[in-house]
Amino acid sequence: MTTRIGVTGATGRMGREVIAAATGREDCEVVFAVNREPAGGTVDGVEIEPAAEFESLVTDREPTVVIDFTGPESAADYVAACADAGVAFVTGTTGFDDEGYEALEVASEDTAVLHAPNFARGVQALVNVVGEAVRNLPGYDVELVETHHNAKRDAPSGTANRLLEEIEANGDFGGRTHGREGEAPRETGEIGIHALRAGDITGEHEIVLAGNHEEVRLTHRAEDRGVFAAGAVDAAVWIAGQKAGWYDFADVISE
Ligand SMILES: NC(=O)C1=CN([C@@H]2O[C@H](COP(=O)(O)OP(=O)(O)OC[C@H]3O[C@@H](n4cnc5c(N)ncnc54)[C@H](OP(=O)(O)O)[C@@H]3O)[C@@H](O)[C@H]2O)C=CC1
Ligand SMILES: O=C(O)C1=N[C@H](C(=O)O)C[C@H](O)C1
């Protein structure tokens, strides 16, 4: 069965990759692609239409699923329109505040919604092992360093926030410290978080666990944005058969 895909943020770094990944698969068809500004032109042969027409496109072109990599404000609008139309929604957008997450959750009552801050399979593996490392090394200092390109809006990254949840759920920590400056000795139990922004770095996450005259470093490095796009398209194909509800990338990988 062909999964009919709508793409938002189509001329962005990720939108272009999603179109390339979806058009390269025989089981997918990109039925529309929208961008805020500028619309017009094509990406991999797919016409880029104005985002203002999203609501009519999501009804008229009958997509199975929309893949969204935009910003938290637009993702909240897009998911609401998808819920109204009964179209599934896969989003990799990061930087949501509580209101943004609520918009996704409300929509998930009426349609299938999948949010993942990182669609790389290696990051899902990292999420799975980091808790185990923390449990095995009680009392060790934990620091997280994430590095991204210089145009990234949100910090720390969505992936870093997900890893932090996993770290905190598996150890006894006192709080988060974002960077350090001046007289700033490390407090017992704090988790240090450092966001680097430079050049066109695709995305790196490293967790450092140190103590007892030893250190463990768990690192994921994405070498190409195609890895995120491939995961998002896998998620889109998977979600086509799901009922309304809230899903994450672990659900896709576990099947
Ligand atoms: N989950 C994952 O695996 C990954 C997640 N991401 C996340 O995806 C998101 C996009 O990243 P990236 O592609 O690098 O960003 P870009 O800035 O390159 O692209 C974003 C696109 O979304 C559009 N957009 C932004 N805001 C709005 C809005 N309010 N209304 C309509 N369209 C909008 C932009 O349009 P315009 O050109 O007009 O601004 C642009 O086309 C980020 O949140 C990022 O963190 C990124 C990589 C992997
Ligand atoms: O903005 C990016 O580029 C990325 N964002 C995601 C995040 O915030 O975790 C995932 C990836 O690291 C690339």
UniProtKB/TrEMBL annotation:
It catalyses: (S)-2,3,4,5-tetrahydrodipicolinate + NADP(+) + H2O = (2S,4S)-4-hydroxy-2,3,4,5-tetrahydrodipicolinate + NADPH + H(+); (S)-2,3,4,5-tetrahydrodipicolinate + NAD(+) + H2O = (2S,4S)-4-hydroxy-2,3,4,5-tetrahydrodipicolinate + NADH + H(+). Its EC number is 1.17.1.8. Keywords: Amino-acid biosynthesis, Cytoplasm, Diaminopimelate biosynthesis, Lysine biosynthesis, NAD, NADP, Oxidoreductase. GO terms for molecular function: 4-hydroxy-tetrahydrodipicolinate reductase; NAD binding; NADP binding; oxidoreductase activity, acting on CH or CH2 groups, NAD or NADP as acceptor. NAD(+) binds at residues 9-14, 92-94, 116-119. (S)-2,3,4,5-tetrahydrodipicolinate binds at residues 149, 158-159. Coiled coil: none annotated. InterPro entries: DapB_C, DapB_N, DapB_N_CS, DHDPR_bac, NAD(P)-bd_dom_sf. The active site is at 148 (proton donor/acceptor), 152 (proton donor). Residues 122-253 form the Dihydrodipicolinate reductase C-terminal domain. Residues 4-119 form the Dihydrodipicolinate reductase N-terminal domain. It is an enzyme of class 1 (oxidoreductase). It is found in: Cytoplasm. Pathway: Amino-acid biosynthesis; L-lysine biosynthesis via DAP pathway; (S)-tetrahydrodipicolinate from L-aspartate: step 4/4. GO terms for biological process: diaminopimelate biosynthetic process; lysine biosynthetic process via diaminopimelate. PROSITE patterns: DAPB. Pfam families: DapB_C, DapB_N. One of its GO terms (cellular component) is cytoplasm. It comes from the Archaea. Catalyzes the conversion of 4-hydroxy-tetrahydrodipicolinate (HTPA) to tetrahydrodipicolinate. Homotetramer. NCBIfam families: dapB. Belongs to the DapB family. This is 4-hydroxy-tetrahydrodipicolinate reductase. It comes from Natrinema altunense (strain JCM 12890 / CGMCC 1.3731 / AJ2). The lineage of its organism: Archaea, Methanobacteriati, Methanobacteriota, Stenosarchaea group, Halobacteria. The gene is dapB.
